[in-house]
Amino acid sequence: MISMIPEGKNYRALPEEYRVFYKYHEALTRYNSNKPSLTINTGHRSYFHYKYNRIPTQFY
Questions:
Q1: Please, are residues 4 and 13 in contact by the beta-carbon 8 Å criterion?
Q2: Which end of the chain is more exposed for a tag (fewer CB within 10 A), N or C?
Q3: How far, in Å, are 18, 24, 58 from residue 33 at the CA level?
Q4: What is the average pLDDT across 52-60?
């Protein structure tokens, strides 16, 4: 599902048959590499890396 979302877009970019499963306006949001992001949250599955099909990674 993540791979179907272009950079800077969210679930609304999915085909209609998949969009109906998501009601949360930030669901499946892929970051935009050319814009500042919100606070990066590694604990939820709503935001995804702008290039790779994964959630952001937390490094210490």
A1: yes
A2: C
A3: 25, 22, 17
A4: 76
